[in-house]
Write a structure and sequence with these properties.
Rossmann fold; binds 4'-phosphopantetheine; 5 strands; 5-stranded parallel β-sheet; alpha/beta
Length: 158
């Protein structure tokens, strides 16, 4: 049984994330989307429960995707759950510079490898932070987040 974990803040989940989850689900028996604490991001638009619920909703048609949360070291979760690999999307060299030390640290700590999927070109510029800023000032994020996420963002930002 191969198990992948896709960790992240997902505040909120975007179509770029969803594309990575979907592609990972074709390569692994089980994919766990893990809403994980990032010490650099103190507050969020959505609570962890809300983020998980949105991810559940937008991945409900993919049988081998499940959703969980974790507030400790990522490698403690991957070791405890016999995770085969961490899977993340890579949009640009900025992501590469951010991700490389984490991937190397996680491998040093536990031996787990991180596999990167190149982001679909449609979503190369999409990030949760940018979408929150656009939505906050009334910009249209349709097509960049699933409709349920767009509705939830509008409700929060009203
Ligand atoms: O979506 P993000 O915020 O860029 O995801 C970063 C995240 C949550 C994957 C990273 O901060 C993380 O793995 N946090 C868990 C704590 C941990 O293990 N830190 C050491 C990483 S080497």
């Amino acid at each position: 049984m191969t198990i992948a974990v896709c960790p992240g803040s997902f505040d909120p989940v975007t179509n770029g994330h969803l594309d990575v989850f979907t592609r990972a689900a074709r390569q692994f028996d089980r994919v766990i989307v893990l809403v994980t604490g990032n010490p650099a991001k103190k507050t969020g638009l959505f609570t962890v429960e809300e983020r998980m619920e949105l991810i559940r909703e937008v991945t409900s048609d993919i049988a081998n995707i499940e959703v969980d949360h974790w507030s400790g070291l990522l490698v403690d979760y991957t070791t405890a759950h016999q995770v085969s690999a961490i899977v993340k999307g890579l949009r640009s060299s900025l992501d590469y510079d951010y991700e490389l030390p984490m991937a190397q640290m996680n491998r040093r700590l536990s031996g787990v490898d991180t596999l990167f999927l190149m982001t679909d070109e449609k979503f190369g510029y999409v990030s949760s932070s940018l979408l929150k800023e656009v939505a906050k000032y009334g910009g249209d994020v349709a097509g960049l987040v699933p409709p349920a996420v767009k509705a939830a963002m509008e409700a929060k930002l009203q």
